[in-house]
Each structure stands twice: as C-alpha cells, then as structure tokens.
Sequence to fold (269 residues):
Amino acid sequence: MSNAPIKVDIWSDVQCPWCYIGKRRFETAAEAFGGDVEVEYHSFELAPDTPVDYEGTPVDYLSDRKGVSREQAGQMIQRVTGIAESVGLDYHYDDIHQTNTVLAHELLHWAKSQGRQLDLKERLLKAYFVDGRHVGRPEDLADLAAEIGLDRDEALAVLNDHRHLADVKADVAQAAAYGINGVPFFVIDGKYGVSGAQESATFQQVLETVAAERATAPADDVDEVRA
Amino acid sequence: MSGTGTGAASVPAFTMVGTDAPVCIDGVCEIPGAGVDAETSA
Fold:
C-alpha cells in the first residue's frame, strides 16, 4: 500500500468564481476524508485577451462576452454570488477589477518555488472576489505577495522579468493536451478527472476510492520492499 | 503533471467522476443542466 499523499492537480484561474467555490468544496471534502492530500494548482487563462485595466464592470464584461442583456448578466452574477455565500464566500462583484490574469499565474508559479503556492492562491482569490483588489498589475500583486510574508521586491522582480511565463504557458498547453477547456478541473491521483465545482461529497468519494484502491493494491512499491 | 520544460504529456484516459457541475469556459461561467435559465447563467 502506497504511503504517498494523494496528488490532486487543479487547473484554475484567479478570476473564476466557480474555481473559488470549487476550492472550498474540495477543501471540505479533503478535511472530511482525513487522509494525506497534496494539492498543486496549475495555470488556466479563462480570458487571455482581457486587458489589464478593463474599463467596464463585471456586468458589462459578462454581457459583452456572453451576448446577453445587462439585466440577465446581473442575474447571473447574483446567482453565483448566492452560491458562493453557501460555502462561506462573500463575493463583492461591485468592487471587482476585471483584468488579465497571466501575471497572477506567473506569481503563483514563483510562490510554488517558495513553498507558498496554496497560501498565495487563497490570497489572490480573496483579493479579487472579496476585497476588490487588482490582481493584474505587478505592484498590486507584489503587495499581495508581501501580505502573506513573501519578499515584495523579489515578487516584483519575478513579474517584471516574466521569470515564470514559460511555466504558465506549459500548464495551459498541458490543459489543452488533456482536453481541459473549462475550470475548475481536478485530476486526482493522476487518473480521476473531476470537472467543475462539484459538491463536496463527490470529491470525498473520489479520495476514498483512491485510498481504497491503494489499500487493496499489491505490495509492489519501494516503501513496501524496503520495509 | 505540470508539464514544464519538455512539452505537454500525452493525453491519459481520465476516469471522469461526478455529474454536471458549474465550470467557467472562455471567460464565461455556466451552470450546466439547470434549465432554460442555464443558457444565460454564470
């Protein structure tokens, strides 16, 4: 039986409301599961053509993008806000700064190299959906990095150098190769795919399935042999 | 799994789990399977 943590790879974007909701539902499931789980986030750009300083509101953005009336766009936003509230997230859509998220993804790759990816992911999502912070500009992102204890100057340098842009593009290419065209998308133990902000019970079921498979698997891994 | 440096790995056959659930695609966030309103829902 493998003692390694269950690896969960999650494709996600900072400006994705379902990604934040799915994150909470997954976290609830992982806590209920109780076993060792290792999470890694991967970059996915929902709208790479968005300008850094989009001048409209989220209602304008959704109305333009989806081709619906502003009233309908407002209703959509109300709906997702209500569902976010059900998992304890207080979305403030009136304060959102629609932006390009490539720099946020670059910063997340740097945070991963510092062992802080999960903390920064949470900080960026909260910054965007709850706090009304800008997450598309180097100075704003460096401030957010500093707020979780990362070096602000280094964060700024990493962004200005685009040190992790290739990593972002590699994640995006990997998503395309896997056929992932929407987020959030979870890959569990390298073999189970879970699309969307599923209910916690679904995530928990998959984790328990993986654990059960490991419990009944032949003792052929190195740890077992060495023991 | 991150696919850095050597290009994207080949596509594995993921066993998909779960029912229709909300996803965001191309900058728009859908609620699949939620009825007529889902056509215009985020």
